[in-house]
Specification:
The protein is mostly helical. The protein folds into 2 domains: about 1-70; about 85-145. It is built from 7 helices and no strands. The chain is globular.
């Protein structure tokens, strides 16, 4: 019976995460936040750091679209060490790039640039040209300010 409960919890977390993503796609960002928060809390209870970090990334997407950049930054600061520790370089690079973008959106360009540099190095290391392009695109916005 314990395995069944764990599976139900895992399924519920996945469903909440997917609902958060769907609400975000529909532009319903406040509802997206609610679902991702529930998914994050369940993952935290289960001590599933990767799922929790994934939910934090979902929250960041919603917070950025709600112009709640400080909250997005707090989520990134929690998720990045998990990605780094688990050696999820693509997720780490994406999160660092988005952290830089959040600082850019707050006009804190001096704080953004070192994160752009880190993200670019990661994408080059893993030979991800799409990721490199994303970083450079975001960085150009900083250079024009």
């Amino acid at each position: 019976m314990v395995a069944h409960v764990a599976n139900d919890s895992h399924l519920e977390t996945g469903l909440l995460h997917n609902l958060g993503g769907a609400k975000g796609i529909l532009g319903l960002y406040q509802q997206s936040v609610q679902y991702f928060e529930k998914a994050r809390a369940l993952a935290h209870e289960r001590r599933d750091q990767m799922v929790e970090a994934s939910a934090l990334n979902g929250l960041v997407y919603a917070y950025n679209n709600l112009d709640r950049y400080e909250e997005a930054i707090r989520c990134y600061e929690q998720a990045i060490p998990v990605f780094r520790e688990s050696r999820e370089r693509l997720s780490e690079g994406s999160a660092i790039n988005n952290l830089a973008l959040a600082y850019s959106n707050l006009n804190q360009f001096g704080r953004a640039i070192p994160y752009y540099e880190q993200a670019l190095a990661i994408f080059r290391e893993i030979h991800d040209q799409y990721g490199e392009c994303q970083v450079l695109h975001n960085w150009v916005g900083v250079m024009t300010h």
